[in-house]
Design goal:
heterodimer; A: 433 residues; mainly alpha; ABC transporter involved in vitamin B12 uptake, BtuC; two-stranded antiparallel sheet; 16 helices; 6 strands; 70% helix; B: alpha/beta; 6-stranded mixed beta sheet; 17 helices; 24 strands
Chain lengths: 433, 525
Amino acid sequence: MSNRFSLRDLSLLFALLAIAAYFTYSVRDAGAGMFYENNPFLSARTLSQLVVEVSITAMLAVGMLLVILPGHIDLAAGSGVGLLGGLATVLINGTGWVTESLAAFHDFIARTFGPEAAGWCPPPPWPDPVAMLFTLVIATLFWGFMGSLIVRGRIQAFIVTLGGMLIFKGLFWNVIGSRTISVTGTTVGKTWAVTAGGETFQIPQDWLHRLTTEYVDARTGLLAAGVIVGLMFIARLRAWSRRKGLGIEGDDFELTFVKWLIAAQMLFIFVLVANQYKGVPLPAVLFAAVAFVVHTLTRHTRFGRHLYAIGGNEEAAIISGIRVQRVTIWAFILMGIIVAITGFMQTAYAGATTTVIGDLMELDAVAACVIGGVSLKGGRGTVMGVFLGALIMATLAKGMSLMGVGPEHKYMIRGTVLVLAVWMDTRLNRRAV
Amino acid sequence: MILSARQITKRFPGVTALENVSFDLDSGEIHALCGENGAGKSTLIKLLSGIHPYGSYEGRLEVNGEEARFRGIADSAAAGVAVIYQELALVEEMTVAENIFLGCEPRRFGLLDTARMHREAAALLKKFQIEIAPATPVSQLGVGQKQLVEIVKALGKQSRILILDEPTAALAEHEARILLNTLRDLRGRGIACIYISHRLDEVFALADRITVLRDGGTVFTCKASGTNKAHVIRNMVGREITELFPRVVRMGAGLKMPALEVKALTVADPRTGRERLSDLTFSVGPGEVVGIGGLMGSGRTELLMHLFGAWGHRMFGSVALAGKPLRAKTPAAVLSKGMALVSEERRRFGLVMEQSIGFNLSLSSLRKMSTLGLLSAAREHERNFAFFRRFRVKAPGLGSRVSKLSGGNQQKVVLAKVLMTDPSVILLDEPTRGIDVGAKTEIYGLINDLTAAGKAVILVSSELPELLGMSDRILMLHEGRISGEFGPGATQEELLAAAMGTPIALPARPLPKYLLPPALYLPTL
């Protein structure tokens, strides 16, 4: 379980650079030069969009890692993205049968216990945070149920989530009434007044559409990058000195330092480039937070160890005293939460919920995992690898859009890249053994 | 000379697995290869079978007098070399005939010729005097029969050289005997055989010549008649083993409150609903080793798996740990109550093969190394390293993959993992199966240490000398029932008779008279 930035990750990085270079070259404005400002692929706006798209793809892929590690899969993720994004949108707009049911519930409580008692469950439209929280709860229930079916009912995850994919898709269309509903709902402009320290702040209620339209301003972004780089330095130094103290094999001081330096530079370049447009997009921050949590979960917690052990050898995991069922269900519940967050972001990025939101996103997530070195049999894979895999998939998609490649070719190219990546991976692995 | 390897040297990064090894095989000869795990036997076999291809080693390999340059298993198979591995490579869902002809199915007009396949399979089985119907699904066969099918499959492909890696490790005595007879028969037909086994009795009963490997080099090759067991063992380990079974019996062992008490335990197979364990009553005291023997399928493994909460549907009976009834029904719960299991199938139930030694060592004890679920790398490493040292696992470090370790070292990792949970009752299922003499001795020493610390041990073994040597008491199982209870002074014949369920009178230990119902009251002579 080496925590190191592996050779494999490095080769992915090179592949990514090659893809980016190709797009930079091929979409250049003839006669106007290849670099910056003039190049649509390298324009600040394109890069900013790319960041948002990568964040969304990578978010779902990182969740997918959690269920693939113990040897399962989630084919319902794409439909789930649509459904959960749609549910939140419906709740903030106060439309559809879900709203009607919740209103009926409110009336029932009010009739039975009096209007005061029904104060806790007002009928939609709800403020965005409330709608999102409600959706998150629904997501944990759905995914927890699928997880239970898989481990307790002993039905393969492929089947359970394939069923989920179809059911959620139908439910999604049902919930939004097969219409297009804008994410800028009735809450736009409304605020909560919060008084703290003698000052009154106005906290907006329209979170959903802000998810992909908010940016971290330039100065805060740089400051945050500085803090993160500093913390990273301290953490690396501590890990290095601990390794040295205990005599664990690992990177020496120079390599530790160089890696930190590279990571720090990349982060600063990222923030500087993002600042050329409007700043670091909020989805990137959200993804970073989720990725950090999942990385910590997989690498530094008992839960994560158990995921790897279950995927590596389920029977041995059981005999080793791991509560396989519980761990697996938790992996699915976390996946549900991540699907919901991705659903919010994807719907917000589209500006409205429509019947095609989330289509085939589960396959992008699986592809990102596989390209990133995750074994579909379970037991192998890292957040870093998945991130690079998602970066490749999203960059390809964006570049092809800019080049005006038709959707029919896009599908074929993405499929080819996926198979090619895995083929090369198995070849490289075989040689290394 | 049908096969010869000359001055073979094979290096892996950091290790020289074989150095200047020469080895030859005559047709119609059984040549035994002996050595501790890690001595280089597996590497040599992989070389002979083309898994380590030509060019990855130095030296010269000849088959039938011509240099062999195997690029893979297909090449070696074409040259007539067949390897029968410990882990069998049969397709469980297919019949015996289908397995024998897997990959070279007889065809007629492009379609499978099932009739011919069965006819030829039957002929082959008959030729080698193996009584298995060709239409039997392999899943219904015992391990020994599967092994025979595997051999027939190899011979069906005109193999002239058989390599058997620990073929009897998973077999009961009578199954092993059938296999050995088959091998003798094949020798008569001119088939050459490289035989690897840790059971020296078999080696001497079977082999024409013996080659001993140690630390990647040949120690000697000589006629079996020109050496003896003690000599071979001495050369395998390079040191004299004065006592193979150094059981230290503690006075007063088992007199206190039993650490584990099993009463009238009756368990059914959850799949078939058939009763597999019937009315088992026994107890194990602190500091005591209770040996459990029996043939394959007698219910030994099922008993341990059931006690550990991993198998079976309990119909009747109770289990108590240190006087308290044990209600835990899952391995995780049983483990937390202080009872641990080392399974006989370490690759299947013991290890996550793709992961490191450290990962596997701490897997059952992560709770002790974490705060609120967050692992402490320092605490984990400290504890892992202590056990890594104490068990003398031969590996470059905690980061090595367990799949790269030899069987003995893998077993040590499993044992260390289990003992790291600090259990009070330890269930050992064939803890020395398929591992070398040196590692065995270390494991026996470990059992003594455990009992000296007041732990209760159940030792399941199919090797009778091991049972006799290491147990304070021995229970024999036959078809899910206890068919005899013995002290360490029992003879192998007595144990075997009990294991086979032969109701022979054992004058040494008559049952107390008051336990017998009146109708069965027999006058003692």
